[in-house]
Amino acid sequence: MVQSSQKLKLYGFNNLTKSLSFNIYDICYAKTPEDKKKYIEYIDEQYNSSRLTEILTNVTEIIGAKVLNIAKQDYEPQGASVTFMISEKEVPVASLDISCNGGIIPYKDSVICHLDKSHVTVHTYPESHPDEAISTFRVDIDVSTCGQISPLNALEFLISSFDSDIIIMDYRVRGFTRDEEGRKHFIDHSINSIQNYIPQSVIHRYNLIDVNVYQENIFHTKMLLKEIHLDNYLFDIDEKDLDAEERELIREKLWKEMHEIFYGKNF
Q1: pTM of the model
Q2: Residue 195 lies in a domain
Q3: Could you give the CA distance from residue 171 to residue 178 in angstroms, rounded to a whole number?
Q4: 259 is in which domain, residue-wise?
Q5: 56: closest CA among 77, 26, 30, 86?
Q6: How many CB atoms within 10 Å of residue 12?
Q7: CB-CB contact of 238 with 250 (8 Å)
Q8: Catalytic residue numbers?
Q9: Is 143 helix (H, G, I), strand (E, B) or coil?
Q10: Of 4, 131, 157, 253, which residue is least crowded by CB atoms under 10 Å?
Q11: Strand, coil or helix: what is 182?
Q12: In tens digits, what is the pLDDT along the chain, a chain of 267 residues?
């Protein structure tokens, strides 16, 4: 867990902002246009705004924050968004802005939300290749906190919440806080890689690349699954029903999609 130094005594509030951007990609082989449509409908149902709200509620509890406001929306033809405004400590009801719902969703599917520097958001992006039998589901989650709480504490839970072929993460600490002598502190915890907060059991399943700018407190890690088990990628098809040539062709298409996303360029 990320913790502030016990010896550090601050002058006033901890003004550091810690932001985690968490992207996952799940790849699927859906052979026909009908299969592609069914896959997107399946993903939209599995990760609708209600399910995403549950995930973000758990994230908020794990990092030790309090929910001030929730806004959620399912889109047509696909995709969903959820936004939480959070605080490090519980805000008294008398001080709560009248636009906040305190995490209790009203009868509407969508509510107006305002953002502070502490917030949690998620957006989903299901899509399909126009010609190839490849569909990709992307989830973007941003967790931004101020004070002593840290989004890195929720990283293990986020990874376990999705089936991820590719994971791309950015973590940054911005601003500064002062100690009692007036000295600025631009970070309040030790870190040399986001990998420090990922379980070894997860790391063993992926190839990982780090790009870190330590003097700017910027950390970047991306992960690519090492092995493909074909049955995990087939939609409405069984691997046993495919001949060896077709199985190999599908693997090539899946690997190509995964490597293009991981390296950020078309091959």
Answers
A1: 0.83
A2: yes
A3: 22
A4: 17-263
A5: 86
A6: 8
A7: no
A8: 118, 123, 146
A9: strand
A10: 131
A11: coil
A12: 444 445 567 666 777 889 999 999 999 998 888 888 888 888 888 999 999 999 999 999 998 888 888 889 998 888 999 998 876 655 445 444 444 555 555 544 443 333 344 888 999 998 888 888 899 999 999 998 887 788 999 999 999 999 899 999 999 999 888 888 888 889 888 899 999 999 999 999 999 999 999 999 999 999 999 999 998 999 888 888 889 999 999 999 999 999 999 999 998
Write down the residue that tokens 């502070």 correspond to: 116
Q: Read off the DSSP letter of residue 176.
A: -
From residue 241, alpha-carbon distances to 132, 237, 251 in Å are 20, 7, 15
What is the tally of structural domains in the chain? Answer: 1
Asked, for residue 11, whether it belongs to a domain, the answer is no
Residue 6 domain-assigned (yes or no): no
Q: Kindly report the CATH number assigned to the domain that includes residue 70.
A: 3.60.90.10
* Two tokens, residue 148: 């002593």
Distances (CA, A) of 70 to 52, 115, 150, 152, 158: 11, 10, 20, 21, 19
Please state, in angstroms and rounded to a whole number, the distance separating the CA atoms of residues 12 and 15. 9
Whether residue 181 lies inside any domain: the answer is yes
pLDDT tens-place string over residues 121-134: 999 998 888 888 89
Q: Single out the residue of 155, 158, 144, 140 nearest to residue 65, CA to CA.
A: 144
